[in-house]
Amino acid sequence: MNKTILVISDSTGETANQVLDAVKVHFDITDVDIKKFSKINKKEQIDEILDDIKGDILIFSTIVDRELLDYLIEKTEMNESIYLVDVLSYPMLISSKFFGQQPRFDVGLNRKVDQEYLEKMEALEFAVKYDDCKDKFGILKADIILIGVSRTSKTPLSLNLAFKNYKVCNIPILPEVEVPSELYKVDNKKIIGLIIDSDKLNNIREDRMAKIGLQLGYSDDFRIEKELEYAKKIMNKIGCKIINVTDKTIDETSNEIISYIDKYK
Hints:
Enzyme class: transferase
Number of domains: 2
Keywords: Kinase, Nucleotide-binding, Pyruvate, Serine/threonine-protein kinase, Transferase
CATH class of the largest domain: Alpha Beta
EC number: 2.7.11.32, 2.7.4.27
Oligomer: single chain
Order of helices and strands: EHEHEHEHHHEHEEHHEH
Mean pLDDT: 86
CATH architecture of the largest domain: 3-Layer(aba) Sandwich
Distance between the termini: 59 Å
Family: Belongs to the pyruvate, phosphate/water dikinase regulatory protein family. PDRP subfamily.
Radius of gyration: 29 Å
Function: Bifunctional serine/threonine kinase and phosphorylase involved in the regulation of the pyruvate, phosphate dikinase (PPDK) by catalyzing its phosphorylation/dephosphorylation.
CATH topology of the largest domain: Rossmann fold
């Protein structure tokens, strides 16, 4: 009699594959056909799979959709030559009792988590690559562009937003340096201008200079006023949103930026 092992999942089937691999090492398996079916989400698909295969069938299933799983169970109970291993139900039952919670049973939840992780890592790499205008072409690729004078929290904001899956580049504004022309080529709704009160900026810069043991005009009042005036001029020319970060935490500013950006998506 022919023997066939089926892996059936409404997601990628990777979990069922791993369980099958763990089981196979304990048996001398020869002349067994193994077929794998992923993203099965209709009863008709289950019918087609089972109708096409003859002989004894062993199924490893990670179907999460309750209605679809019940249908598969019903089909297997009607046929004595079909054996079903429901990989998730028993672990879910015991875990539910342990945590005192009902499982979410979201189809493809693992895949979704994995994808979100990859997107977050990609956004973080983007933020590092295009930090402080290391590469001006990041302006054309970014979801959000932060501009402002030094010490307006551009880098920590970029990383904070990256953790929320936004690709961010930041551009310092200095009176002596012409801003990249790319800033005038993108949608100004993507650009956020960061400003700060001059006294607060002076304190931040003086503290910074003390820590690294330098004395420069970096924290000079006249210099700061000149930088802020120039930055506001550029921001107004671009027509971007301007946020005063003086009394805001990184999270507060980040949330304000996201609220604004998402409004124009």
